[in-house]
Structure formats: C-alpha cells, structure tokens
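Quarterly update from the structural biology core.
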Amino acid sequence: MSQKSGARFTEKQGHYLAFIYTYSHMFGRPPAEADMQRHFGVSPPSVHQMIVTLERNGLIRRRADIPRSIEILVPPESLPILSWLGIKPSKSL
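Predicted structure, tokenized:
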C-alpha cells in the first residue's frame, strides 16, 4: 500500500488511479468506465465496483449527474506507476 502523503491504496487501485490520471492528462477529460474496461480487460461490473471503492475510500470524487466527472483526490506524486515511468505530474490537473 502507498503511504506517501497519507494516501493508502492497493496496487490494483494505484493502477486505476494512474490510468485515470494519465488518461485525463492525455485527453483533457477523465476516462469513461468503458475506457477502463478496455484497458484493463475486465467486465463492466468490475470497473464500476472499483470506481465505487475508490470513491468510498476517498481516493476519487465524481458527480452522478455529470458523465466523465472523476476527480482524483490523491496527489499524483503518490501514484507509484507514475514515478516508475518518470512522468512528472501536471499542475493543471
């Protein structure tokens, strides 16, 4: 589990958070659940459950009335995959 900046999440949750962050940075909007389903090769209920878990754990925020409204609440520098890839977090996200 990550403990940097007080964020605590599993390795799999970290991969989802890193994907959401990277996708948002690349395309200027958060991914849809279908995008995550394709990327991770999992079923729609699996992706939805992960999003619900991330939200329940305070790692993301989203608005039910707005599609693609995922906002990451974890400092990007605490995402291990980003530091491994050498990606510098963007201040604009």
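The first strand starts at residue 60 and ends at 61.
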